[in-house]
Structure formats: structure tokens, C-alpha cells
Prior knowledge:
- This protein is an alpha/beta fold.
- The protein has a single domain (about 5-80, about 120-190), classed as P-loop containing nucleotide triphosphate hydrolases (Rossmann fold, 3-Layer(aba) Sandwich).
- It contains six helices and eight strands.
- It has helices at about 45-50, 80-90, 100-110, 120-135, 150-170, 180, and strands at about 5-15, 15-25, 30-35, 60-65, 65-70, 140-145, 170-175, 185-190.
- A five-stranded parallel beta sheet has the order 5-6-7-3-8, with helices on both faces.
- α5 (about 150-170) links the parallel β6 (about 140-145) and β7 (about 170-175).
- α2 packs parallel to α4.
- The structure holds adenosine-5'-triphosphate.
- Keywords: ATP-binding, Hydrolase, Nucleotide-binding, Transport.
- It comes from Calidithermus terrae.
- This is Putative ABC transporter ATP-binding protein YxlF.
- GO terms for molecular function: ATP binding; ATP hydrolysis activity.
Amino acid sequence: MSPLLEAHSLAKRYGRDWVIRGLDFRLEPGEVVALLGPNGSGKTTLLRLLAGLMRASGGKVVRQGRVGLLANPPAFHRHFTGEENLSYALRLEGRSPQPAAIAAALQAVGLPPGKAVLGYSSGMKKRLAMARLRLQHPDIWLLDEPEAALDAQGRELLEALILEAKGSGGVVLATHDRGWVQRLATRTLELSPAA
Ligand SMILES: Nc1ncnc2c1ncn2[C@@H]1O[C@H](COP(=O)(O)OP(=O)(O)OP(=O)(O)O)[C@@H](O)[C@H]1O
């Protein structure tokens, strides 16, 4: 089977400071790779490079499939409702979202209908981001600290989402919660802060 994602000699620096140097990485279908490492070790940077949201300073990333990123914190239109944000994300992909499917997606993550995102808590925003990603259903799922701000039920929803993603694609997720991710990850990648 061909990999979903490959990074070859990937490197990134901000100004003079190298954050990632000479990284080779491969994501196969069915894998859940946990990115671990202390604050500032480059987990978010790596996810953004893999997503194609940031230009690398060296090396390259090859993607075989659609990428979806759950950012930390996730970004939304604050004055739009949850439903409007979900519809908007799908329209951007050229899809015509059905209101019933949008309402069901919102309900599935336990969010109330008709509420503007500016009135959401951080955990509610995380839930909305999960609903969005589930509707987008990418092949390559990139999750930046997805468990942060989620309560126990939110984590259960997240775990179900990760299993769903694993069944149809591959997942790379950054986390500080080693205990939590141990059960889910098929492999871990430790990043170290630059010396
Ligand atoms: N836009 C930027 N400009 C300059 N330096 C940056 C920028 N973004 C990140 N950095 C630096 O790059 C390094 C890696 O940051 P990054 O956010 O990727 O780490 P992280 O492992 O995700 O951290 P955390 O666990 O705190 O979320 C840090 O030293 C950070 O200060």
C-alpha cells in the first residue's frame, strides 16, 4: 500500500532558529501517530508543514489524499452559528450541505442548535471542530492537541472520531497526554527542542 503522507529531509527555521531538521516521516493507512515532546519542540510546526499551511525551509512533503487539520485552538467565524460554520466549511470544498446532515453533525457532538460561536466555550469549539472534520472526512487527519479542553464525554467522542479516521485513512496527532494517547496510537514520534 502506498503511504498517505511522506516527508523527506523536512526542515523548518524561524529566522536563525531551526525547529525541525532533516526529518523523514511516513504515514501509512490505518496508522495513528502520536507526536510527543515538550513545549516548543515543534509539534504544531510539523503539523502545519504536513498540512501544507506553511512553507518548509528544506525538504518536501508528498501527500496522497485530502488533508484535514484540527488546529489548537480551532478557528471559526465567531458571528456565525455552529451550523453556519459547518455549512461554510463544506461549501468551501464545493459541496452542497444538507441542513438535516448539518443539524445531525452538531447534535452528534452534543452542541445546541442556533448558537453563535462567540458564545461557545473552548470545549464547545473543540466539539464543533470535530464535527467539521467528520463532515469533511479527509484521508489524512492532522490533530493538534485535540483532547485539550474536552471533558470525559468529549474525549469519548474524540476517540470514536480517531477510530473512524484510522479505519478510512491515517492520523497524526500532537499531544501532551501520554497516558491518554497510549491506547490509541499505533506509533509515537518524539520531538526534541532545538539545542
Ligand atoms: N511564527 C513563529 N515565529 C517564530 N518562531 C516560532 C513561530 N512559531 C513557532 N515558533 C517557535 O518554534 C518552536 C516550536 O514551536 P511549536 O509551536 O511548533 O512547538 P510545539 O511543540 O507545538 O509547542 P507546544 O507544546 O507548546 O504547543 C518554538 O520555539 C516557537 O517559539
